[in-house]
Automatic annotation (TrEMBL):
Coiled coil: none
Stretches assigned to the Soluble ligand binding domain: 135-182
Keywords recorded for this protein, A-Z: Signal
Name recorded for this polypeptide: GumB protein
Keyword Signal among UniProt keywords: yes
Domain Polysaccharide export protein N-terminal residues, every copy: 53-127
Gene responsible for this protein: gumB
Pfam families, per the entry: Poly_export, SLBB
Domain of life where this protein originates: Bacteria
Length: 237
């Protein structure tokens, strides 16, 4: 075969390979799946108090606790966890509270009160508000894991916490799972459109689970769908 003819053949093959790669890339970077897009009203999740006991919330700095010592109103009231991780109580002073469940904090307060001041005190502690809620980011991100958020957080910010999307991520298919009105629901978002300003950047709440599509996320998404009792897929209005 003449050199010129062979060169043209190689160019043609190269062009075909490039076209095939572009076609594959386009197919991998598209919307789709059973979780709906364009949800007009993806509501805020249920209050923290509704979280199941097996997933008991562990407190963080800035959380506000409602402490009730039964039949002793002077020892009851709200307490904010300070930056050092303590709350301050009448009579007993500082009580370690960071990284604990409300039941553990109640037990600690009860033990300290019974040691010196009260006989068999009944103490109840509830989470009134939280400034350090947790979200899960999984799938095709560089740093999948559980992250703390404080205050208002958007989907783009949540992805940034997980060190951004991987090279094989499909940013057009991002699922958010959330408990609303006692039901586990889901909505899909197009991260590419959000980045380009073509779509709103949705708010993310504590206990949300975010899964970014891509070759690395298939097992993660399957695991989420299998382990979470998804009662209803959120439908657009």
């Amino acid at each position: 075969m003449p050199i010129a003819s062979a060169y043209r053949t190689l160019l043609a093959l190269g062009a075909l390979c490039l076209a095939a790669l572009l076609m594959l890339g386009g197919c991998a970077d598209t919307r789709g799946g059973s979780i709906p897009y364009g949800v007009a009203k993806f509501n805020a999740p249920d209050p923290i108090a509704a979280i199941a006991a097996e997933n008991a919330y562990r407190t963080g700095p800035g959380d506000t606790l409602a402490v009730a010592v039964m039949r002793v109103p002077d020892l009851s009231g709200d307490a904010v966890i300070d930056p050092s991780g303590d709350i301050t109580m009448p009579l007993i002073g500082k009580v370690p509270a960071i990284g604990k469940t409300t039941d553990q904090i109640a037990s600690e307060i009860s033990g300290r009160l019974s040691a010196k001041y009260l006989q068999n005190p009944e103490v109840r502690v509830a989470l009134k508000s939280s400034s350090s809620q947790r979200i899960t980011v999984d799938g095709s991100v560089n740093g999948p894991g559980i992250y703390s958020i404080a205050g208002s957080t958007t989907l783009l910010q949540a992805i940034a916490l997980a060190k951004g999307t991987t090279s094989d991520a499909n940013s057009r298919k991002v699922a958010v799972f959330r408990t609303i009105a006692g039901q586990r629901q889901a909505a899909a978002f197009d991260l590419t459109d959000i980045r380009r300003g073509k779509a709103a950047d949705p708010e993310i709440f504590g206990n949300d689970i975010i899964v970014v599509d891509g070759s690395a996320s298939k097992a993660a998404l399957k695991n989420v769908l299998q382990t979470i009792p998804l009662i209803s897929i959120f439908r657009p209005f």
